[in-house]
Amino acid sequence: MTLRSQLLAASALIAAPIFAHAGDIAFAPVPFAADDAAKRAVLASDKVTIDGKDYPIGYTTLARSGDKIGAGVFAALTDRKGQVVKSEDGSEHISVDADFTSLLHVGGKIFSVTHFESRPGAMYVSELTQAADGKLTPVSTKPVDFSAFGGLWVPCAGSVTPWETHLGSEEYPADAREIEAATALDQIDDYDYPMARYEGLDPAKMTLDAFRAAFKPYRYGFPTEVTVSEDGTAKAQKHFAMGRVAVELAKVMPDKKTAYISDDGTNTGLFRFVADAEGDLSAGKLYAAKWVQTSDAGAGAATLEWVDLGHADDATIQAAIEKGVTFSDIFETAEFGADGSCPEGFLASNAEDRAECLKVKPGMEAVASRLETRRYASMLGATTEFRKMEGIAFDPDHMKVYVAMSEVSKAMEGGAKQDKGGRDAIRLEKNSCGAVYQLDLDASYTATAMSALVAGTPMSKEQEAAAADPNCDPAHNMCGDAAKVNSCDVNGIANPDNITYIPGYNTLIIGEDTGEGHQNDAIWAMNLGDKSLTRIFSTPYGSESTSAYWYPNLGGHGYLMAVVQHPYGESDEDKLADPADARAYVGYIGPFPAMDK
Predict the structure, then answer these.
(1) Rounded CA gap, 158 and 145, in Å?
(2) Alpha carbon distance 284, 210 (integer Å)
(3) How confident is the model at residue 15 (pLDDT cuts 50, 70, 90)?
């Protein structure tokens, strides 16, 4: 075969769907948690059928918050000096907010890195042993040092890069404009206060000046990368070049250069980063999606255009942060006119859940693009109307990216108040149960279109009335109390969050982060062929299911990670009988046979 023929063949493989192994997988379903005992339990499928053969599986807990593992205490939050920070009651703060947990094969060892979605945040690297039957057991744990970056802020979801590093996140960074403008501490969102503990301050006693000196808002809100060596040493890096938003996660494509970044919250955007070099996220170009709506049916559809936000590198942006750049160093501001337009020379933004007229000061374009990424994207015409954008998964079989939207609401609704300063590009009916979207990729891994794949189903008034009927049939409907605490159909998804794809088996895994939608959060397996959903995991009262992530072959076994965050902590707090039950669970469903063939 000539070189030209080889290149054409390779290009065809990239551009076309790839079915390396058209296998079948079916999970034993987990029943809806209908009674108190089930609502308190961690339940997982006990059997999976793969290509016609049955395998026993289940849920294995690797660790729970506060566990002593080797010389370390798993989930203890630490300050700059490595000391455990204090909770409001004076006790050492052990986080129950476990989130994404990666599995990394490094040399001849297996490690995991676990996020704790707190302020200050934490990541713990743990060494694991693997038994012959695939069971994983942690033997040591220690926190990852982020002191070079002023600590870690609310790490949420994550992914594993093609070069076997942990790619984490920082969610809901503070509004730098608000902090700069404040004349009293109570004018700053108290959500930000606990981070001051990282620098040794007591949030209950600190002054505004002390808080500002300790807390630089532009230090937080970036993808983070952790490289683990075979001796267990973990090196952290924040990728300032990838932009500052409420990073749910960044997911790198097989080209080792393109990454999609989801942005959680209200009036958020979808971002694509293209690195200068393979396997190096420290420099590159950033793009923001523009939604051009083609359908308002269901959760909608659109073609995607990409707004170029320019090039930047980590070192340059970090230098600006540490120099103390402020919001007013980056922007001039103005008020909207009576006709709703901005004065000449200013551009409108509806990002950050507020309408603003802004002008970038001369020479500050690169800094604006990376430190005020949403605002800058909105000013340039990108769409910042998304709501609760969550997990991302790549599907090599169909050349798609999947993105979870926990709610279709607020600026995603046509004519919403959150559209002021924007373009009302997304005009959909509200769906408080959320949806998962599919993005079509071209040969360069650029998304060209976005459409709803599956959506949750809100309970209708008729369903609510039927459920309240004393003659309601519990075999086919939610009845009585079950209907009162589940505003979304329990046989479908509610508020999708973390997602992952099982290559070769046409199956998308969907985890939930739901409050009123479902009383007990679930993880689902979706067959993309017939669109059927099977509940494979159920969490206790008040929990969030996090870290759904598929590993097809790690030391000869497959694993589906599944973490239970803050049991009894988001709702149903009154159901907690034993404080120990509120500790997070970090573990996995499996083990499976190796499934990468």
Answers:
(1) 18
(2) 36
(3) very low
The pair of structure tokens assigned to 434 is 């959320």
Q: CA-CA distance, 21 to 561, in Å (whole number)?
A: 22
Q: Which residue in 254, 179, 248 sits closest to 218, CA to CA?
A: 179
Count CA atoms closer than 13 A to 306's CA, side-chain side: 18
What kind and span of H or E run contains 558?
strand 557-565
Cα separation, 451 vs 428, in Å, equals 12
Query: Which residues have a Cβ under 8 Å from the Cβ of 118 and sit 6 or more positions away?
Result: 77, 93, 95, 97, 154, 194
Mean of per-residue pLDDT scores for the chain: 93
Rounded Cα gap, residues 229 and 207, in angstroms = 41
Q: Which two tokens stand for residue 126?
A: 């743990």
CA–CA separation, 273 vs 543, rounded Å? 33
Q: Could you check whether the bond before residue 120 is cis, i.e. omega within 30 degrees of 0? A: yes
For residue 225, the cross-strand partners are: 167, 237
Of the listed ranges 10-14, 214-218, 331-335, 403-407, the least confidently predicted one is: 10-14
Token pair recorded at residue 502: 């099982």
> What is the CB-side half-sphere exposure of residue 128 using CA atoms within 13 A?
28
Spatial neighbors of 198 by CB under 8 A, at least 6 apart, are 79, 80, 85, 120, 150, 151, 214
Handedness of CA 8, 14, 15, 20 (dihedral sign): positive
- Distance, CA of 41 to CA of 34 (rounded, Å): 11
Q: Which of 172, 177, 360, 338 is nearest to 267 (CA)?
A: 172
Find all residues with CB under 8 Å of 321, minimum gap 6, and list them: 216, 218, 219, 240, 371
DSSP string, 18-59: --S----EEEPPPPP--SHHHHTS-EE-SEEEETTEEEE-EE
Cα pseudo-dihedral 191, 194, 198, 204, rounded to 10: 140
The span from the CA of 55 to the CA of 28, in Å, is 10
Determine the Cα–Cα distance for residues 18 and 33; give it in Å rounded to an integer.
Answer: 38
321, pLDDT greater than 70: yes
CB 496 within 8 A of CB 456: yes
Identify the pLDDT of residue 480.
61
CA atoms within 13 A on the CB side of 112: 31
Residue 310 makes CB contacts below 8 A (sequence gap 6+) with 285, 286, 365, 366, 369
pLDDT in tens, 296-314: 999 999 999 999 999 999 9
